[in-house]
Amino acid sequence: MLRRTLLIQGPLAIVLAVICPRAYAQRDSALSEAEIEVLREAAYFPAERVLVFIKFLDSRTKRLQDIFARTRLPGREQDTHDIIEQFTSIADELEDNLDDYGPHHRDIRKSLPKLIEATERWASALKALPDHETYNVSRKLALESIRDIRESATRLLEDQREWFAAHPPAKQDKNEPYGPSR
Question: Which residues touch 125 (CB under 8 Å, ≥6 apart)?
Fold first, then answer.
């Protein structure tokens, strides 16, 4: 019985994935298509990419603040939960990018202080939300993500200062987004 179910559901899942790949891909994405495109454009410029992530996380924070700034609407708690989930997903993606930039010595020294400053702003905004069982766990996870980003950015800033002091960058060619090969 299980084998027959798998034989029927397997092809059905493949057909659905082929027919509606965009709907399937967007269902789990915390980013809009426009935001994904902006990230793609900034892919070769790590310092700019970090700033793009800051912008996206700031927009989610602003949306949270807007929800509680106006008259209470039905579904506010679920909307808050969903935005916090998006926030955490984007923050985790940023953390992954930071983990990648460090060992490869991508020069993001100018954007790291802005990122560290932004973590304070985000944490304050999330802590200011009233308690509610619908989103308290999500908020806790988001705050942990913010803490991890702050720790990574602080450590990475110090590592980059040391590394670039010992290895001053050569004059950068405009056509090489990462600078000269090392």
Answer: 61, 64, 65
39-89 pLDDT, tens per residue? 999 999 999 999 999 999 999 999 999 999 988 888 899 999 999 999 999
- How far apart are the two ends of the chain, measured CA to CA in Å? 59
The pTM (predicted TM-score) of the whole model is 0.77
Token reading at 132? 């509610």
Q: Are 125 and 61 in contact (CB under 8 A)?
A: yes
How far apart (Å, rounded) are the C-alpha atoms in residues 48 and 161?
A: 18
Q: Pick the closest to residue 95 from 137, 34, 154, 164 (CA basis).
A: 154
Residues 95 and 145 sit within 8 Å (Cβ to Cβ): yes
Residue identified by tokens 């930039």 is: 101
Domain ranges of the chain: 30-166
